[in-house]
């Protein structure tokens, strides 16, 4: 296979843009590696950062490198010591590759490994016909789950991990930001029995997406006083749980203001820099509990994602707004940048 080539979307050299080109198919799998044929891949906000070549990407990406990390595919070849997947299996993959050596990895917290590598960031990614990954990151996915949904199980896992830090049954849940992940969190909260799911969002396309995913109320904080509206919807109490999924400084301050005393805050959004807020009045004196969320639990979150999709308790169809052949990847990136999409799927 070494001499064969495949189509891939590559960051060829430092600078903006990505290139579709033929590159060699990855070589023979090492003893613990698996060669996967990519069936579907999806574009993440991270890919957009890499495309634009912002400061974050400049510090991390070492071109030439294949981009992409969200995908589903079929096992084509396994290394000699691989035991948990076999040729022909449908798989999805955790994109954070744990070192398996640090304190966190050794104590059941691989998702916060101190030395993790990320697919498509520290090594070649999945926007290609084939990808070589370590066995440890693979999750055998139920083949009845449509490829489009399997491909986005990674960000769906972010939504699940963030939402399920606490029991949502009968709770009033506020989600700030209805990007693809916030929109999927709406469905997770509904499936978990939340009493009222409120979403704050500023872009029309995403406000509609939140509604399609089952949000009870969508609030535009540019048009109304968001904390006041949340209180009026919750008998004057405020939300029991805040899921921060915007990465906006304004949104988290309004979110904290909207949470009831003793409430739970789960933070997924990544902020542009240091965050200044009135921690005394917005957090400490309210007796809040705050969780920081990175990635997905390996593999508790993946199991829940699999079950929610297989049982159809969650319908991700509104979130998958576009599917393009790999050749038209630029259109997908353009729509995402303008906020005119949910998840964009690429076919290889
Ligand atoms: P996204 O950028 O597509 O969605 C963010 C949404 O927030 C957008 O729709 C935007 O219009 C909305 N928004 C912006 N300002 C707002 C405001 N003031 N009030 C309400 N909404 C506002 O991102 P995504 O892919 O859905 O991811 C959500 C967040 O999670 C991002 O910040 C992303 O960087 C972060 N993330 C974190 C992890 C992690 O492991 N911690 C993993 C993936 C993504
Ligand atoms: Zn580790």
Automatic annotation (TrEMBL):
<dbReference type="InterPro" id="IPR020843">
    <property type="entry name" value="ER"/>
</dbReference>
<dbReference type="InterPro" id="IPR011032">
    <property type="entry name" value="GroES-like_sf"/>
</dbReference>
<dbReference type="Pfam" id="PF00107">
    <property type="entry name" value="ADH_zinc_N"/>
</dbReference>
<keyword id="KW-0963">Cytoplasm</keyword>
<dbReference type="GO" id="GO:0006567">
    <property type="term" value="P:L-threonine catabolic process"/>
</dbReference>
<keyword id="KW-0560">Oxidoreductase</keyword>
<dbReference type="InterPro" id="IPR004627">
    <property type="entry name" value="L-Threonine_3-DHase"/>
</dbReference>
<dbReference type="InterPro" id="IPR013154">
    <property type="entry name" value="ADH-like_N"/>
</dbReference>
<dbReference type="Pfam" id="PF08240">
    <property type="entry name" value="ADH_N"/>
</dbReference>
<keyword id="KW-0520">NAD</keyword>
<protein>
    <recommendedName>
        <fullName>L-threonine 3-dehydrogenase</fullName>
        <ecNumber>1.1.1.103</ecNumber>
    </recommendedName>
</protein>
<feature type="domain" description="Enoyl reductase (ER)">
    <location>
        <begin position="17"/>
        <end position="346"/>
    </location>
</feature>
<dbReference type="GO" id="GO:0008743">
    <property type="term" value="F:L-threonine 3-dehydrogenase activity"/>
</dbReference>
<keyword id="KW-0479">Metal-binding</keyword>
<dbReference type="InterPro" id="IPR013149">
    <property type="entry name" value="ADH-like_C"/>
</dbReference>
<dbReference type="InterPro" id="IPR002328">
    <property type="entry name" value="ADH_Zn_CS"/>
</dbReference>
<dbReference type="InterPro" id="IPR036291">
    <property type="entry name" value="NAD(P)-bd_dom_sf"/>
</dbReference>
<comment type="similarity">
    <text>Belongs to the zinc-containing alcohol dehydrogenase family.</text>
</comment>
<dbReference type="InterPro" id="IPR050129">
    <property type="entry name" value="Zn_alcohol_dh"/>
</dbReference>
<keyword id="KW-0862">Zinc</keyword>
<dbReference type="GO" id="GO:0008270">
    <property type="term" value="F:zinc ion binding"/>
</dbReference>
């Amino acid at each position: 296979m070494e001499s064969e080539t495949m189509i891939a979307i590559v960051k060829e050299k430092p600078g903006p843009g990505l290139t579709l080109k033929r590159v060699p198919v990855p070589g023979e799998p090492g003893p613990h590696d698996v060669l996967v044929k990519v069936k579907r891949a999806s574009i993440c906000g991270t890919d957009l950062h890499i495309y634009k070549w912002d400061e974050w990407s400049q510090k991390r990406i070492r071109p030439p490198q294949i981009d992409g990390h969200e995908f589903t595919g079929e096992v084509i070849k396994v290394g000699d010591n691989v035991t948990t997947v076999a040729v022909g299996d449908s798989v999805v993959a955790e994109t954070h590759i744990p070192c398996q050596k640090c304190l966190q990895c050794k104590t059941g917290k691989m998702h916060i490994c101190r030395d993790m590598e990320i697919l498509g960031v520290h090594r070649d990614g999945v926007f290609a016909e084939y990808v070589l990954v370590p066995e440890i990151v693979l999750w055998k996915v139920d083949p009845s789950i449509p490829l489009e949904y399997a491909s986005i199980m990674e960000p769906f896992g972010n939504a699940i991990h963030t939402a399920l830090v606490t029991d949502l049954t009968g709770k009033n849940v506020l989600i700030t930001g209805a990007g693809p992940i916030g929109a999927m969190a709406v469905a997770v909260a509904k499936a978990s029995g939340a009493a009222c799911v409120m979403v704050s969002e500023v872009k029309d396309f995403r406000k509609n997406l939140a509604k399609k995913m089952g949000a009870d109320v969508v609030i535009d904080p540019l048009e109304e006083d968001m904390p006041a509206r949340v209180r009026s919807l919750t008998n004057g109490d405020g939300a029991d749980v805040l899921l921060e999924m915007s990465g906006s400084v304004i949104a988290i301050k309004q979110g904290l203001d909207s949470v009831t005393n003793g409430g739970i805050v789960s933070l997924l959004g990544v902020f542009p820099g240091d965050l200044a807020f009135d921690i005394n009045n917005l957090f400490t004196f309210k007796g809040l509990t705050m969780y920081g969320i990175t990635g997905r639990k390996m593999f508790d979150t993946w199991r829940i994602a699999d079950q929610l999709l297989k049982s159809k308790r969650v319908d991700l169809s509104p979130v998958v707004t576009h599917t393009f052949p790999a050749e038209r990847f630029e259109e997908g990136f353009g729509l995402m940048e303008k906020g005119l999409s949910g998840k964009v799927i690429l076919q290889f």
